[in-house]
């Protein structure tokens, strides 16, 4: 039976944490280990974690550094083996019992560093169905530059093999990054990505979510206005920072076209020539018009 090491970062998650923990521990067909880093919770989260009397769970009660650094800390401290698998988990979702074994079945067909991610079922705080994130016929791009800009791949659906985690640990980023976007980009560049159109997670959306569009009923197709409002709440220059970190760690392993693309993105914030090239290039786009418009806007106002 294969082991999956689940990396869970918690912060003031007492409302839904119990249900999520139960669904992780009840996974079928796999051996589960859960590594929790509590990011300085001030509600009842610590009490819930302390009450989980199960030797499959290890908890680190740590200081608050924010969810980005918290997940990267887990990536660098979870015990690593090339024969095991690794998954991210949020604190407020519910996993179907076959979520992890499904991922392993698909990843086992792939040689080398590999990442699995899936569709997801969006629900509200009371588990009322909102809709699936993607249509059943959706096929995400695995080619640069579109895959870099698409934002497809939510951390809580991701499972990676030990070879990908070994690759990740070759370089430790020194900037604040979204763990899932960084891992997805690295997997697309130097490994393989497996997408599953089926959903094995109830992805709970509510006003307390750390990412996304909260409890918005149109979360799977947000309006341009909603994207614009969210844009002003996000960190500045996420794409250029991610590109710079990938170059710093893996430039020698990248093919020439990917290295050039990442260089243009990384240097676009301080080089007007690169900004003009990226803005005018028809190849610099995402999978939808709205996402492409958001990328072009970032280039225009120099926040890529």
Describe this structure in words.
This protein has 304 residues and is an alpha/beta fold. It contains twelve helices and nine strands. The protein has helices at 17-25, 45-51, 67-77, 99-107, 146-150, 162-168, 179-190, 224-231, 238-250, 256-267, 272-280, 289-300, and strands at 3-10, 31-39, 57-62, 85-89, 94-95, 114-123, 129-132, 159-161, 192-204. Strands 1, 2, 3, 4, 5, 6, 7, 8 and 9 form a nine-stranded mixed beta sheet that branches. Strand 2, helix 2 (45-51) and strand 3 form a beta-alpha-beta unit. Helix 9 packs across helix 10. The longest helix has 13 residues, at 238-250. The protein is globular, with a radius of gyration of 19 Å.
Descriptive tags:
304 residues; alpha/beta
The assigned structural class equals: alpha/beta
Runs in which pLDDT lies below 50 for 5 or more consecutive residues are none
The beta-strand count equals 9
Mean pLDDT: 92
Shape: globular
Helicity level, as a percent range? 25-40%
SSE series: EHEHEHEEHEEHEHHEHHHHH
Secondary structure tally, helices: 12
Largest sheet: 9 strands, mixed
| Global Rg | 19 Å
Instruction: Bin the strand percentage.
Output: 15-25%
The span between the termini is 44 Å
Give me a quick take on this structure.
The protein has 304 residues and is of the alpha/beta class.
Please describe the topology of this protein.
Blueprint (H helix, E strand, L loop, with lengths): L2 E8 L6 H9 L5 E9 L5 H7 L5 E6 L4 H11 L7 E5 L4 E2 L3 H9 L6 E10 L5 E4 L13 H5 L8 E3 H7 L10 H12 L1 E13 L19 H8 L6 H13 L5 H12 L4 H9 L8 H12 L4
Parallel strand pairs: 1-2, 1-4, 2-3, 6-9
Antiparallel strand pairs: 4-8, 5-9, 6-7, 6-8
Helix pairs in contact: 9-10
